[in-house]
Amino acid sequence: MPKKILVVDDEKDIVDLITYNLEKEGFTTMRAYDGEVAIEMVKSQKPDLVVLDLMLPGMRGLEVCKFIRRNRETEALPIIMLTAKGDHVDRIIGFEMGADDYVTKPFDIRELIARVRAVLRRAEGRLDSHRAETFTYKGLHINYGTYEVTVDGKRVDLGPTELKLLRFFTQHPGRVYTRDQLLDYVWGDETFVEPRTVDVHISRLRMAIEKDKEKPEYILTVRGIGYKFADEK
């Protein structure tokens, strides 16, 4: 079945450009020109990915993104933020709200389509990881059932927090997470945990699994934003 893409932008010409080219590539498209309609379409039409403009009339794109991420039925829906702003702060805010990728106008339509494909691949990879009992990437092997971790065949002993971090990262390869997001997803309701605590545990995890902690292959730093596991693709 063709993947369904919801394109949300208040500029009709941009929506026409994106949907026309997505349909040429075999995708099915839907259109929304404001945030309220976008949310209704997400709930009723269940798209596979949303291309979402940041600067929408009425309900802004960040609010739409926040709604999607806080709803259990849609929390895993891939989102690509689209905006005329090139401000680094907007990019950070977009990722903090849960965007999977960020494209700045004016954009190359071929690049946007390539990013749509990449984000969809990562989403499929996350589903596969959740279903899988094991994970293997470049010499790193994890058995999720027994929590046994090996690197190049040698067993690695990890603390409970490092194990939870590694499981979370490997089940969401390629996606960037801020420190606050990692605290929410990995530490959960634990109290008195500072964002910098994430850095400490990332450092411990790298010491255990990376061949060179200063040049990591698995747990990568995205400067100014946070961390991600290497994109398997």
Lay out the secondary structure.
Elements: E1 4-8, H1 12-24, E2 28-32, H2 35-45, E3 49-53, H3 61-70, E4 79-83, H4 88-96, E5 101-104, H5 109-131, E6 134-137, E7 140-143, E8 148-151, E9 154-156, H6 160-170, H7 179-187, H8 196-209, E10 219-222, E11 226-229
Parallel strand pairs: 1-2, 1-3, 3-4, 4-5
Antiparallel strand pairs: 6-7, 7-8, 8-9, 10-11
Question: Can you characterise this structure?
Answer:
By secondary structure, the chain is an alpha/beta fold. The chain folds into 2 domains: 4-127, 3-Layer(aba) Sandwich (Rossmann fold); 133-229, Orthogonal Bundle (Arc Repressor Mutant, subunit A). It has 8 helices and 11 strands. A 5-stranded parallel sheet has the order 2-1-3-4-5, sandwiched between helices. A 4-stranded antiparallel sheet has the order 6-7-8-9, with no helix packed on it. Helix 2 runs parallel beside helix 3, helix 6 packs across helix 7 (179-187) and helix 6 (160-170) packs across helix 8 (196-209). It is elongated, with a radius of gyration of 19 Å. The mean pLDDT is 87.
Order of helices and strands: EHEHEHEHEHEEEEHHHEE
CATH architecture of the largest domain: 3-Layer(aba) Sandwich
Assess the beta-strand content as a share of residues: 15-25%
Instruction: From the alpha carbons, calculate the radius of gyration and give it in angstroms.
Output: 19 Å
Give the number of DSSP strands: 11
- Tally the helices: what do you get? 8
- In CATH terms, what is the fold-level topology of the largest domain? Rossmann fold
Major beta sheet summary: 5 strands, parallel
Overall pLDDT level: 87
Helical content stands at: 40-55%
CATH superfamily of the largest domain: Response regulator
CATH class of the largest domain: Alpha Beta
Q: Pairing-aware structural class of the strands and helices?
A: alpha/beta
The shape, in one word, is: elongated
Please mark out the parts with pLDDT under 50 across 5 or more consecutive residues, or reply none.
none
